[in-house]
Specification:
Shape: globular
CATH class of the largest domain: Mainly Beta
Helix content: under 10%
Distance between the termini: 31 Å
Largest sheet: 5 strands, antiparallel
CATH architecture of the largest domain: 6 Propeller
Structural class: mainly beta
Number of helices: 2
Strand content: over 45%
Radius of gyration: 21 Å
Length: 444
């Protein structure tokens, strides 16, 4: 661990107490389940929300009536106007399985990552053609321009893309990730001249999925979670007896990949950030943010044992606890680790859930997260909270964000091209409301 006396000032010191103000809570669109294994938040490693100035855009997911899974959805593009949310256009031709991440450039280009199937309508699964659609912010109802990536070799992409989108807004550059089966994660880089000038293949120790991709001045940082069928044979047999399913995917290993220059240097081999294999736990990768010194701030959730049933049968005595973890990586080494909040057996009843990092124009970094369970008095809680990451790898106490309908969510993020802002735009699902919801929160 790095001595705090040697730790550089990476963030602006807190300038004001935390008094977040909820300015809007709205339903963007309703959604009928597609029963294809995905959903509107399935691409949680990226985002379906982008802001430029006063304009806010959302890419929605619509189930096509009568279409058969797996490829039975289409994208819909929304904008928040003075009269509320309006549908600008939707895909009238192609079908796909997954939601479509958004990116944005400050020059008015709006980017949509799509993965349309190239199979017949009655085909269950098969080949797809991942690419970008480019819209104009000032003419979002006009036809989009298709941007066709160049990939390494001839990868056999399918509707199970597990893809990622990273945007460097200042330099107008993009990185796309897309999985092929369990073995490979293909990447491709589009430079400021519009050329797909670099591409390659990432190999993780096990399949890496749902990646967060941060791109800045050609330095690229990726956080992905391992996603494999239960590897412990005894546990796998027991799970099958309980559920009747032939498979059970587990998420127990967290991987970080980076390069200081995606054009000049290869991506380094994956670094394992955390591992809960031994206790049958669960990890969820939530965010990556790059500070002004070039260090990567990683945010993730960690659960010691994935279920009480598994613990009681195979790991008696191991407490089930869930924590929200923040770590800082420089030169492929973790230099700071900080548990932001923790709950569970022996740790209290407040259990952290979805979380994101958000930076403001003046250099402050916040963690916005969901929390549910019971407080110290035994009262049920279900709320969004906010804390600040402070210099030296510390954090402030959390405060409640007074959302009437607490969200599980994604945000308008720098990784998608949205600028640092005192406005926190949030998109997700929430209790008590049908469909996909939006909240606008003003930070201190």
């Amino acid at each position: 661990m790095l001595s705090l006396s040697l730790f550089p000032v990476l963030l602006t010191a807190a300038a004001a107490p935390l008094h977040p103000v909820v300015e809007a809570e709205e339903v963007v669109y309703d959604y009928d389940p597609a029963d294809n294994g995905a959903g509107p938040l399935w691409c949680y490693g990226s985002t379906c929300l982008a802001r430029q100035g006063e304009q806010v855009f959302v890419s929605g997911l619509e189930t096509i009536p009568g279409a058969k899974p797996l490829n039975n959805c289409r994208w819909v593009l929304f904008r928040r106007g003075k009269e509320g949310w309006e549908s600008l256009q939707k895909d009238a031709v192609d079908r796909q399985r997954e939601p479509c991440p958004l990116g944005i450039f400050p020059d008015g280009r709006l980017l949509l990552s799509v993965n349309p199937t190239r199979t017949a309508p009655d085909t269950y699964n098969g080949t797809s053609e991942p690419h970008l659609l480019q819209f104009a912010v000032d003419r979002p109802q006009a036809p989009a321009e298709a941007l066709r990536p160049v990939w390494e070799g001839r990868p056999a992409f399918t509707e199970h893309s597990y893809r990622g989108l990273g945007v460097d807004a200042a330099n107008r550059e993009i990185v796309l990730l897309n999985n092929v089966g369990y073995e490979e994660q293909h990447w491709t880089f589009r430079d400021r001249g519009g050329k797909w000038s670099r591409h390659g293949i990432l190999h993780y120790p096990i399949r890496g999925c749902y990646p967060e991709v941060a791109l800045r001045n050609r330095a690229c940082h990726i956080l992905a979670v391992g996603d494999v069928v239960e590897p412990v044979e005894e546990w796998r047999k027991w799970k099958h007896e309980q559920s009747g399913r032939e498979w059970d995917y587990v998420f127990r290993r967290l991987f970080y990949v980076s390069t200081p220059d995606i054009v000049a240097s290869p991506l380094h081999a994956p670094v394992e950030i955390d591992n809960v294999d031994a206790t049958g736990g669960h990890l969820a990768n939530y965010d990556v943010w790059i500070d002004r010194e070039g260090a990567a701030h990683l945010l993730y959730r960690k659960t010691s044992v994935a279920s009480a049933g598994l613990r009681d049968r195979f790991l008696p005595g191991v407490p089930i606890v869930t924590s929200l973890e923040h770590c800082i990586v420089r030169d492929n080494k973790v230099i700071v680790r900080d548990t932001l909040t923790i709950g569970g057996e022996g740790k209290g009843g407040e259990i952290p859930g979805w979380a994101r990092l958000h930076a403001t124009e003046d250099g402050r970094l916040f963690v916005f997260y969901h929390c549910r369970g019971t407080d110290a008095a035994g009262k049920s809680i279900n709320e969004n909270r906010l804390m600040e990451i402070l210099p030296g790898g510390k954090h402030s106490p959390p405060v409640t964000v007074a959302t009437k309908h607490p969200l599980n969510f994604m945000t308008a993020t720098e990784r998608g091209g949205s600028a640092p802002s005192h406005i926190l735009d949030v998109l997700g699902s929430c209790d008590g409301r049908k469909g996909i919801c939006y909240a606008r929160i003003r930070l201190p």
